[in-house]
Amino acid sequence: MSSKIRIGTRDSELATWQAKQVQSKLKEFGFEAELFFVKSEGDLDLTTPLTEMGGKGVFTKALDDALLENRIDIAVHSFKDLPTENPLPLTVSAVMEREDPRDALVAPKGVDFLEDESSKAIIATSSNRRKAQWLHRYPNHEITNIRGNVNTRLRKVNENGWNGAIFAAAGLKRIGLDNNISVYLDWMVPAPAQGAMAVMIREEDQKMLEITSQLNHKETAICTGIERELLNEMEAGCSAPVGAFAEIVDGDVHLSAIALKIDGSLQYDIEVSAPVHTAKGLGREAGRKLLDMGASEIVADLRS
Ligand SMILES: NCc1[nH]cc(CCC(=O)O)c1CC(=O)O
What we know:
- Belongs to the HMBS family.
- Its EC number is 2.5.1.61.
- Keywords: Porphyrin biosynthesis, Transferase.
- It is an enzyme of class 2 (transferase).
- By secondary structure, this protein is of the alpha/beta class.
- It has 3 domains: 5-97 and 196-216, Periplasmic binding protein-like II (D-Maltodextrin-Binding Protein, domain 2); 103-185, 3-Layer(aba) Sandwich (D-Maltodextrin-Binding Protein, domain 2), CATH 3.40.190; 233-303, Porphobilinogen deaminase, C-terminal domain (Double Stranded RNA Binding Domain), CATH 3.30.160.40.
- The chain has 9 helices and 13 strands.
- The protein has helices spanning 13-28, 41-44, 61-68, 128-137, 150-159, 169-174, 206-212, 218-233, 282-303, and strands at residues 5-9, 33-37, 74-78, 90-95, 103-106, 122-124, 142-144, 164-168, 183-185, 197-202, 242-249, 252-260, 267-275.
- Strand 1, helix 1 and strand 2 (33-37) form a beta-alpha-beta unit.
- Helix 8 crosses helix 9.
- The model has no long low-confidence stretch (mean pLDDT 92).
- The structure holds ligand PBG.
- Residues 78, 80-81, 150, 167-168, 170-171, 194-195 line the site of ligand PBG.
């Protein structure tokens, strides 16, 4: 390569960290890259709840456009923010090794309220998946919306007097803010592909395909692929109250998934496994089963 590879990223601290991670991995393989910052609709409008913004692709469109218009060669995304259907001539050429997939609670005033059955705590999140799972476990609590990047949300939870806010542990860890975590929510099923980063390129760009496929982390790609299959099978977008997490243990893929009514009053869950070499389709199968169990009504509810 004569010129530097152009990496496009959103300009939040987390997105920048992630893009730099790709930049330094590329360097290990002998390729120089530079960062280009692209603003997205999701970043500019911080007042509209995400669930009302047309959901799909609010964070990805600006980077998609930059790729399609050949202003950048690579876009780095949090994989969980990418819609499972992509009609554009763009493709994910690598999935980077997954960081901690868990959700975590930041509770500035402490976590004693979690023990008190009758507490009317206020928890901030704008994720339907987090809201539904939280209310299922803590029906007395109230959920309030919170928008903004990780730094903004941390500031808001410290200023607003809420009992807590829910974050992806990965996001906080990456930018060195995980000291704010009060408790890891091991019981909560994460979003499909949470904690993983995706490298996106133009489909026809053979050169970038060759270069970036070296960054692919096979186990992460397999697991997140299965989680996203499930989301796709359920025809649920990233704003759906659906969680899925797959991991490989001793050669087997284990998938846990959950679908809930947004108010937490109803929950369907499933656990399935298969040997890694036959695991393709496991997510689809589990998604289908969840729909058959009754989750189809929840998803249909959301689409109408
Ligand atoms: N929806 C925003 C978003 N997209 C990716 C992350 C964190 C990093 C990750 O999950 O990979 C976050 C923040 C959060 O959920 O708290």
